[in-house]
Structure formats: structure tokens, C-alpha cells
Amino acid sequence: MKTLHLRKLGPGLLFAGAAIGVSHLVQSTRAGADFGFGLLWALIISIILKYPFFQFGSRFTLATKMSLLDGYYKLGKIYLLFFFIISLGTIFTIQTAVTIVTASLATTILGFSQNLLMLSTLIILLCFAILLVGNYKFLDSLIKIIILTLTISTLIALVFALTKNSISFNFSQVFPYKSSIIFLAALIGWMPAPLDVSVWQSLWILEKKKTNAISFNEGIFDFNIGYFGTFILGICFLSLGALVMFGSGTGFSDIGSVFAGQFIELYTSTLGESVYPIIVIAAFTTMFSTTLTTLDASPRCMHKSSQLLFPKISLLNYKFWLITLSMGTICIFSLLLDEMSTLVEIATVLSFVTAPFYAYLNLKLVISDYMPLKYKPSKGLINLSYVGLVFLTLFALVFMKMII
User: Fold this and answer.
1) Which of 63, 135, 187, 398 is deepest in the core (most CB within 10 A)?
2) Which fold would CATH assign to domain 6-403?
3) Cα–Cα–Cα angle for 65, 90, 337, rounded to 5 degrees
């Protein structure tokens, strides 16, 4: 069997870099802290039922050499227009949210808690410079180092937690009620990532193909590594929360900078100061990779959508959207920092309610005539996608009923 070289990996690791962020560092850790191992079922269900739709994105692009956005356009211009409008309304909020968490960790590490705005701006400018100068090829190389560092540091932290924990594990599963339902919705909805990330993945595959020829099987293998890697790290962060924080009586703040301090302080106070560098590296690389990959992916999506929807406007290219997103995010830092919880809630709700839309379109594409017959998914995967589509639809309806 032909060996898959490391240079053939890339889009799957970029997917992991984008996915392993707030959903893992904050939500998975908080799930372990508040419920022990009781919400492990939520992680497993989320990973299994979303798998077909994320995989369909890679499958379609690898088989047709078209992005999902090309596919949406072929299914109907209205679908792509809907994607463009929703993205235009969420990319700034999402970018601001992930950057704030990254900056919050940086302020905790550096001890400059009063300079959150400055550090947020510097992080955006650093990511902007990396993408503007290095483009995809540099991002592809850098993400391999980041993901490797993240994985090793997280696993070391988990080993420390296991060796220092003397309490027997309780794997009884629970279903939270009342106010915790909203948290459960956020955990499932963002684990491992919102479904529109499947579009990012398809664009990264096309960029990868410009520098390295990858076969269909190599591309699917690359995706599986990234996808199930997010699952393993999700369990790691949940386990860290359960082993270190569960039953400690510590409450967690919804303010990013305060949460970051609590996150690091509780780990170090329990596991010892010697583990501080490991926790810091694991936490910061988690969020920096999300900030960087999100800043790359959103402009790619907007550029491709603009090409298809407005072919005569050449100005709307990748650099235009990269500059627009960077400057827009910095403006939000400056003007609306106190309203971040509201902005994030809006973006979260939109991600939840649009999940069935992306699931439906991805399924429709891989069973359509645009998909070569030999690359169409198996009957078992199709059946699993139907179950997932029903689940995501009911999940979105229940969530909307709770917040209205």
C-alpha cells in the first residue's frame, strides 16, 4: 500500500485547527468541569451524526475538483446568495470572538490584563501578516507545527491529571435540564465545528491541489485524520475538566479574560506550577490556530462567492476580504467590545439554525448528477446522513424554541 507522505496532509489539519477552538478549550472543558464525564455522549453523538456532512464536502471537491460553493451555485443561485448573506453577517463576529479568547489567554500569560484591546489588535495583525506574506503554502506548513504542539501538550497535561487524580471515575451519563439546556445546545452545535466549516475544507483542498497532487483516497484519509483528531482532543479537554475541575466548586466567568485566568490558575493549582508551561502552550496554540485559520477561510469563502455571484467585480478578491475582515474585526474591538456576548449569541444562533441548510445541500450534492457515480457515498453513509439531517433539524427547532 502506498504511504501517505506528511506533505500530502494539510486541509484536514487546517480543519482541525479551525475546529479546535472555543468548542474544545471552553465548552468541552466546561462540560467536564460542570458534569464530569456525564456529557461524553453529547460529544460522541455530535461527531458521528455530523461526520457525513463534513466528509461530503471533501468528497465532492476531491471527486469533481469543484468547491462546495461551486456546487451550491449549480444547485441554484439562491443557495449561494443565502450563504453569502449569512456569511457577511457572521464572519466579523466569529473572528472577533475567537480572537478575544486568544487575546485573553495572552493577557493572562503576559500579565497585562488591562491591554486586551491592544493584544487583540496585535494578534489580528500578526495573523494578517502571516496570511498576506505566506499565503496558503505557509499556512499549510505552519498548521502542522501548531497541531503537533497542541496535541503533545494536551496529552501531557492529561497524563499529569490522570497521575494526580485519586478519585474513581464515574462515567454515568446525564441529560441537563433548564438553564443547562442552552449550554448543551452550544456544545453539540459547535462540536467539532459549525457545518459551514465544510465549505472552508473544500476550498483548502483546491488550494492544496495547486502545490501537491493528492488522490481521492489520500484526501479522504487527510480529512479523517483532522476530523477524528478533533474528537480525540475534545475528549482530552473534557477529561481535563472532569479530572481537575469537577467538584471543585469553582464557577466560571463568561468574560473571556477572566475565564482564561481561571482556566490556567485552576490547572496549575491542582497539577502544580511545573505544568504551567504545558497548559499555557496547549491553551494558546488551540486558540491561535483557530484565529489564524478562521482569518484565512472566511476571505476565501467570500472571494469565491463574490466570483460566482458578481463576476464583473474583480475588486472582491481574497486580499480585499482579508483586509476587510481584519479591519472590521479591529473596529469591533474598539467600538463594541462590551457587546461581545450579544454579538456572539447572534452568530451562534445563526450557526445553529443554518446547520440543516448546509447538511441538506452537502447531501444533495453528493447524490446529484454532478457527482461521478464511482465517488458517491455508500448506502450506509447516506442513511447515516438522513439520521443526522433529522437530528440537526429537530435540534435547531428545539434551540429556537428555547431562546425565543
Assistant:
1) 187
2) Amino acid/polyamine transporter I (1.20.1740)
3) 140
Q: Are 69 and 305 in contact (CB under 8 A)?
A: yes
How many angstroms separate the Cα of 133 from the Cα of each of 34, 48, 125, 129, 300? Answer: 43, 38, 12, 6, 15
DSSP single-letter state for residue 255? S
pLDDT, tens digit, 9 for 90 and up, residues 303-342: 999 999 999 998 999 999 999 999 999 998 887 766 655 6
| pLDDT at residue 242 in the model | 87
54 near 265, Cβ under 8 Å? Answer: no
User: pTM to 2 decimals?
Assistant: 0.88
Which set of grid coordinates corresponds to residue 368?
446529484
Alpha helices in 241-275 (DSSP H): 256-271
Number of neighbouring beta carbons within 10 Å of residue 92 = 20
Q: Which alpha helices (H) appear in 197-255, and where do they start and end?
A: 197-211, 216-240
Higher pLDDT, 279 or 40: 40
Distance CA 238, CA 40 (A): 8
Chain CA centroid to CA 297, Å: 11
Sign of CA pseudo-dihedral 118, 122, 128, 132: positive
Q: Which residue is it, cell 460522541?
A: 44
- Strand, coil or helix: what is 95? helix
Cell, residue 85? 448573506
Helical ranges in 20-115 per DSSP H: 29-35, 40-64, 68-75, 77-110
Take residue 396 and report the three cell numbers written for it: 435547531
Q: Which residue has the higher pLDDT, 353 or 369?
A: 369
Ranges of each domain in the chain = 6-403
Give one word for 2, left, alpha or beta, with left for phi > 0 and alpha for psi -120 to 50: beta
Give the side-chain half-sphere CA count within 13 A for 57. 28
Residue 386 CA to its chain's centroid (Å): 23
Select from 263, 258, 288, 259 the least CA-distant residue to 275: 263
Cα–Cα nearest to 197, from 53, 42, 376: 53
